[in-house]
């Protein structure tokens, strides 16, 4: 199923040159029972002049490579439909590695890859599940859930493979994937973000320098970007959002700053825009109807700002 927004607006601050393709993560979908995975994101992007925005549908539970081949086919369909030469890929969670795969095997079709909350170095949650005797049971439940998601989102023929998905998302699987597809990865070990003075000594302006965790900004003509968030279950949750209760539990698994599912240090790719927005993993896509904690970062302005960033880069 191909869904997209093509809307003309007077605000052209984000009028990118190439179509934007949004790529969902694990257990994701394009539209499920009339609810978008990227809730309100297509409209937000089109409101700033990104007139060609599409949301891909790939298998909910599968390996990066299988999902990547599905995404490549979707990208080719978008190019045929629009007449464009390339696309800008924006992937959430596993959508990040999925997008990286396409950019690696067909860089001629990709202008940029942006990952949001993606586990480029694996997820401790996936490590825990894979190392548990309950792994087969969890896999069976996930496969059934994925089949239901596929059916309700208009693609009942999807073949789910939760074990392959977990193998892609744990630390060992991510490391193996990174050996084959290293484009845009962070240059070295994860560092604490330093504060730097961008003002004068007599009028200091202290800002965080997120570039210490950058990877190559451009590889084979493809630009790479990333951002993500960190989550405090006590101060950043919304009592009306049941997913927050789940993420409050999974966040405990991590030994470092995380968004509930992915550690901050696993999110870095290319131009590390910021890795500590106050948001959890689901909030990054404005999920569950946009419900979020009172003092958390609103995600839609981030997408608008990124469209402007892509436009400024000629993408």
Automatic annotation (TrEMBL):
This is Lipase. InterPro entries: AB_hydrolase_1 (IPR000073), AB_hydrolase_fold (IPR029058). It comes from the Bacteria. Gene3D superfamilies: alpha/beta hydrolase. Signal peptide: none annotated. Residues 18-127 form the AB hydrolase-1 domain. It holds the Pfam family Abhydrolase_1.
